[in-house]
Amino acid sequence: MLIDAPSPTRTPLRAAIPLLYTVMLFVLFRSAIVFPQGNPGTDFTPIWTAANKYVSGEPVFDSDYTVDMPHYLYTPAGTVLIAPVAIFGSQEVARAVMAAMGALCIIAAIALAVRMVRPQWFHIVFPLAVSFFFITPEPVRSTLALTNINGFLLLLQVLFIWLSLRLREQKAGWLNQFTRPEAWAAGVIAGVALSIKPQFAVLFIVSLAYWQVAVVVVAALVAAALFAVGWFTIAEPELFFTNLVPYLSEPRPRFNGSVSGLGIVLQWPGALVTVLTLFVIATALGAVAAMWRWKDTDPVLFTFVATGVCFAGGFMASGLMQNYYSIWIIPLALTIVGRQSPMRWPITVLILLCMYAHWVWPETGRKTVDVALAYIPSFMFIALPVAVGAWALANRPSEEQQVEAPDNATEANSVHSS
Questions:
Q1: pLDDT digits (tens, 9 = 90+) for 324-372
Q2: Who contacts 116 (Cβ-Cβ below 8 Å, separation ≥6)?
Q3: What are 158-193's pLDDT values in tens digits?
Q4: Is 9 helix (H, G, I), strand (E, B) or coil?
Q5: What one-character-per-residue DSSP string does 347-392 give?
Q6: Largest Cα–Cα distance in the chain?
Q7: Which residue ranges traverse the bilayer (predicted)?
Q8: Which residues, 6+ apart, have CB-to-CB distance to 387 below 8 Å?
């Protein structure tokens, strides 16, 4: 009698894959469908209002910005891009569609990022990553509950990096880059992202690292074209500069975790705010410089980490930072499954957990302490570039050491034997 040998591919780890996807579906149902329906979607209301004003020819930037309420904060270019939400018959339908599309964009971004970091482990890492990011209070669940466009921007971020790295593989000179479709696609994506949030200029750290001039040129042209379209099609566009820009130039006193926002809440002197602002900029740039050695040896690690720390430093140095901005640090967090990453350091793991857990601390009765505890995620945005820079300096590869992507066969064997 012949006895069939057990299949080498049916390891306990692979057998758990269906369970992982089942858990992921339950988490998605609760976080992407049930949870948003029980929340007001306060970020979506100004988007809906602005889109309808735009298509009906009414002024978009005529709000009373002295009133403390959610305001529409996008440029004329961004208004052109969000205007299609007005085609839906009601705000409820439009919000449901936007929340669903935002969830799909976040899932797609995580899937692509996981493929880039560890393709052979995709069916294990992907459901675990989706479950984790959709079940934690920040940033995905709040993004969907408030119903903003951050999920779309996350997908644009990951697509931009993927296209930039594909362009890098072509080894084309800066002039020949204009003949490559990857350069045009990456430039269009960056131009769209810039038009919605100017802070997405930090993506150009990737273009600088690989000297992708064509990407920057195309992005600038796209952003300028979209701004021109918005300027000439919006009623009373000058209100953007007379009403909205002055409001954006002043830090918001509430729901603002940037250095300037913390300065208002904690009553820091102006000198301390200035010093801390310069500090977060310097540490973010220092972390990128410390990671520079990985630019060619592990480009996925470098680009995910560099953009992550630049987002952290950039938002803290700007006039507004909210906890769900940590959504653009998800690619950095996913590098934990790579062969090496600053995210494998316990300190950075703790920093990310403090960002995403959004713990509610018990009242101490001391206002300063209670406020400081409430703003712990903001302090983690300051700590992240510092920790990444320290890790990079402590783990710098030698000149001869090459940190290349693992061989597919070797990686697959490691999955089978786990």
A1: 999 999 999 999 999 899 999 999 999 999 988 877 777 777 777 777 7
A2: 158, 161, 162, 165, 300, 304
A3: 999 999 999 999 887 878 889 999 999 999 999 999
A4: coil
A5: HHHHHHHHHHH---PPP-S-HHHHHHHHTHHHHHHHHHHHHHHHHH
A6: 87
A7: 12-33, 71-89, 96-114, 120-136, 143-163, 183-206, 213-234, 268-292, 299-317, 345-361, 373-394
A8: 342, 345, 347, 348, 351
